[in-house]
Amino acid sequence: MPFNNNNKPVGRYNQQRDSRGAGNRNDGHRNRGGRMERNPTNSQNQHNPAHDNQHTPRQDTSGDVHVIKEETPTTEVSEENKKQDKKPKRARLFVGNLASGTSDEEFRKMFSPYGELTEVFVHSDKGFAFVRLNTRENAEKAKQELDGKSIHGRQLRVRFATSGASVNVKNLSPVVSNELLEEAFSKFGALERAVVIVDDKGRSTTRGIVEFTRKASAVKAVQQIQEGCFLITSSPRVICVSLMEQEDSEDGLLEKSIPKTSMYYSEREAPPRFAVPGTFEEQYARRWKALDDLEREQREQLERNLQASREKLESEMENCMHEHQAMMMKQDLMRRQEELERLEEQRKRELERRQQLEMARMDAHNKEMAERQHRQEILRAQIEGQTYKSHGDGYGGHNQAPIRGGLYEKEMRNVHELLAEVMWRNCLVRLNSALF
Fold first, then answer.
1. Is-contact 130 92, C-beta < 8 A?
2. Are 118 and 136 in contact (CB under 8 A)?
3. Residue 194: is it exposed, middle or buried by C-beta count within 10 angstroms (0-12/13-18/19+)?
4. H helix intervals, 186-271
5. What is the pLDDT of residues 332-368, one digit of tens each?
6. Nearest to 115 by CA among 137, 93, 92
7. What is the DSSP code string of 346-390?
8. Range from 20-24, 255-259, 312-316, 394-398 that averages highest in pLDDT
């Protein structure tokens, strides 16, 4: 099979593609994502100036539309990039194999050319330090240039520091997002990031990672959540947390970092290979594979049992939630019924009280009318000089004697005198009118 200049095999398709002339690839059009676009360079070379005067408005209109189509997604992407830039990225470095007695000022001078130093910790006695730069790019640049550099006769070891303030989160609800996870854990302290782990299809694996800026905040969060029941969503699905083991997945183990011991040279005598069937190596390699298969089967069986238990617990939880909601609704209905009965009883008592007040008012009115009538009858009897007979209505209770004697005569005399005086005055008025 033939090979090209890049030491890659050239098949029939590649040969046909390479056999094309340069003009076929550099003609006036380029194919980008299945869309034909005009090459700007060739378009300018093939442009006819005579067409400018004939189709100037059309070219300007198409040009404006083209600019709008190109600038709109660019603005959206830039805004999305700005949002991504606001998220903190790990830029903390571990520096090992420092010379004894390295001062804080000397260490700062060593890393200050690579950017702003936001955090510096130097342990000169044990020969290591931690430094945090303002950006991830500056940290990568400092690591690349200072790792392995000899300073004071010692080669520095620079790598990205593992986060000792990371927390593993399990049993998350499928609806929990990065933002909700960050909001839930921000009450324990400042965070660097909060991520929900997803599979290759973007679905939640119900696991997450939360990184705090300080280890004390991570310890506090784990302690409080393990002691209590921390819920993120409305369902009583409690989350489980644990401190993450510190691992370095950035650089891994480099060849220069392995100590060259007798075990190192013994294990490196044979190159990577497949075990020859029927040999001692193949026999024990099979046993190692069988142990790995057993471990995998047991883990799968354990995972199946745990999944069945999770599903059972979720089903029971859902049923209990429905029963609890039904009970709460029933209690609410009973409470409303009791409230209605209480209001109805209160309304009846108020109605009875009003009826009693109305009856008392009517009785008082009737009594007042009876007393008034009784007084009128007494006065009428006194004026007429007749005997007033009581009917046992509570106003005397016995027959009264005729009202005669000095009192009556005196009253009648006063009346006659008053009438005489009135008549005399009328006569005087008439006489005066007749004379004058």
1. yes
2. no
3. buried
4. 215-227, 262-267
5. 999 999 999 999 999 999 999 999 999 999 999 898 8
6. 137
7. HHHHHHHHHHHHHHHHHHHHHHHHHHHHHHHHHHHHHHHTPPPPP
8. 312-316
